Amino acid sequence: MWGIFLESVAIFKNYMGYYENGYLAGIFLLALLYLWMTEKDKCRRALLVYVPTVLLALFFCPLFRKAFVGILDDSGTYYRILWLLQMSIVSAYAILRLCRRHPRIGAAAACIVIAVCGNYVYDSQHITPAENLYHLPQEAIDVADAIDTDEGAVMVLMPEELIHFVRQYDTNIWMPYGREVLIPGWDYTPELYLEMERSEVIHTAALTEKASEYFCSYIVLKEDRKTDEPLTQYGYVLQNNVSGYLIYRNQSLSASAEDEGRMHSTNLSARSSRPASLK
Fold it and tell me: What's phi and psi for 187, nearest 5 deg?
């Protein structure tokens, strides 16, 4: 039981970013303690004090973890219980409550917390200044705009660097696989993805054959991506060149086949977007 408890502590630390931003957990726990001592409203106390406390107690309880893993047969998602803690709401409410009761002390405490614990978001390699109103890479928008979706959803084979962004901009652009191929833990690598990304030179015949199985109306390639044969020899026509990406349309896909692809693209996309372990 002690070992299970220590594993839960490790999960808690990793989730809270303890080793880099341990103050987040500290602020939340101090806020929760402050509300325990000061909050008198029954409804707020139940929502912002009792619920987080019970969730924390259950999370660290070895018996609860054994039951959770046993019933769901999945230890990898145990950390998601912490999603229910309402950390930001509890912390913000506690600070505002402190400011209301002790304006000067509360305001000073809030400023100190922000100054000492905060950081400049653009220092992160994962965050960059917005290029447009959509807060998406401009090349993803340019590529999406160059694809004709006036007649409905179309299946498009995209390079992996665009996978995260295109459907955020246009949900009529469907893809044979999504972000699951980029997550190592899911261990999902369909053959089409292997043909698209895992070789320095794309084997055109194999790529177009696999793409046709998903009724792909378009194939998008980086401008400097090498192929052993031109896609134009396999029924594709270069429709556009935008932001360093070549957009090929499948001219050999008949109208009836394209309609059939639209009908089946939901099932194909859903089936291919789930790792084998989740099927």
Answer: 50, 50
